[in-house]
């Protein structure tokens, strides 16, 4: 699709679907086209469509229902506008994959023994956080910040910290990551250990590859988690329907 100046792709999709709703093409209670159909219509990736649909849920325009699809809601939209959603989780991680891949490569060339020791200690804390299902993931963030600090490049540190700050600032990013946590997605310890080992070995190519592979997996896990979220809602609603049926049978 052609993206209007100053608009993100997912925002342009929301604009187009809002126009469809306003024109009556989709009325309250109507099911939106499937994700595959939207991908074909707008010539974008699944990531972009997924962010657009989640964004529409946040805006109060649609709701996922019984695992059968996404439906237009009858209520008025909320106070947020598409531009308020800010940066999405998928585009954030794509940016992190580029920046932090090079950051890891540089760190492999500049790290000190103290940097490697700090990374090992933080990895241990990440393992502990995973055991208690910590929702904050402080150790995960600190691990990536320490890699940036190991580059001895303040501009790299600022860039990585800014990208991580977006995780907590953007409503769309927060919504996707919250769903991922509810679906059981946690920092992958083996991925981080592979990154650490490559940096400790002074191998920039291996460090770059390990970081990019790790963040590529994060994107896939977010896709799976947002799909899992819809399935869980469907299971919950099906369980409620079964409970109602059982109560009705007991009355009879």
UniProtKB/TrEMBL annotation:
<dbReference type="Pfam" id="PF00392">
    <property type="entry name" value="GntR"/>
</dbReference>
<dbReference type="InterPro" id="IPR036390">
    <property type="entry name" value="WH_DNA-bd_sf"/>
</dbReference>
<keyword id="KW-0238">DNA-binding</keyword>
<dbReference type="InterPro" id="IPR036388">
    <property type="entry name" value="WH-like_DNA-bd_sf"/>
</dbReference>
<dbReference type="InterPro" id="IPR000524">
    <property type="entry name" value="Tscrpt_reg_HTH_GntR"/>
</dbReference>
<protein>
    <submittedName>
        <fullName>FadR family transcriptional regulator</fullName>
    </submittedName>
</protein>
<dbReference type="GO" id="GO:0003677">
    <property type="term" value="F:DNA binding"/>
</dbReference>
<dbReference type="Pfam" id="PF07729">
    <property type="entry name" value="FCD"/>
</dbReference>
<keyword id="KW-0804">Transcription</keyword>
<dbReference type="GO" id="GO:0003700">
    <property type="term" value="F:DNA-binding transcription factor activity"/>
</dbReference>
<dbReference type="InterPro" id="IPR008920">
    <property type="entry name" value="TF_FadR/GntR_C"/>
</dbReference>
<dbReference type="InterPro" id="IPR011711">
    <property type="entry name" value="GntR_C"/>
</dbReference>
<keyword id="KW-0805">Transcription regulation</keyword>
